[in-house]
Amino acid sequence: MHLTEIIREVRKLARDNPDFVYDTPYDYCFYVPVGDYPACIFGQAIHNLDPDFDLDRYNPNENIDSNISSVIRDNFEFTEEQLIWCRKVQMYQDYKSKWSDCIDIADKETPISLGYANSWQENPVELDQHNKFCSGKMVRENLATCLNKYHCKECGIIYKVDSSG
Ligand SMILES: [Zn+2]
Predict the structure, then answer these.
(1) pTM across the whole model
(2) Does residue 100 have a pLDDT over 70?
(3) Residue 9 Cα, ligand 1 centroid: separation in angstroms?
(4) Spacing, Cα 131 to ligand 1 middle (Å)
(5) Residue 132 has pLDDT above 80, yes or no
(6) What's the rounded mean pLDDT across residues 64-88?
(7) pLDDT for 24
(8) How far apart are alpha carbons 29 and 46 in whole angstroms?
(9) Across the beta sheet with 147-152, what order do the strands follow?
(10) Residue 153 CA, ligand 1 centroid: distance in Å
């Protein structure tokens, strides 16, 4: 599985539950439900995509680094920008931000930016993943004459096209 799919699911969960504030009986987040407390946003997203995925082993204990980077590095294909975005979302979730705010802040502070399409030798992995898995539409925003920004709200990628030649 590629992280693009997990990011899409995380963004969908936040859209469906924008005001949700994650809470646990402990100081850290859990990837599986604890008592009446639901799993964290990444736990829910991964479970929705693959119910057989063993999330239990990433629950915090003294033998394991339980942050989302470890889960991702151990199990999925990813790009650094995507990894950083996920860490940011988890951090704000654990700071008790509303899920919609976690996404908005991560998008603002560490966007999954692919730079200028003009400079690509070939498509970035994130764009290939978007074309393959993501049903999101690339929304165009005109920034200046001959300068456009494209953004997918489903998988979060952003890039610019400078057509001034
Ligand atoms: Zn997309």
Answers:
(1) 0.93
(2) yes
(3) 11
(4) 7
(5) yes
(6) 92
(7) 83
(8) 14
(9) 112-116, 157-162, 147-152, 138-144
(10) 7
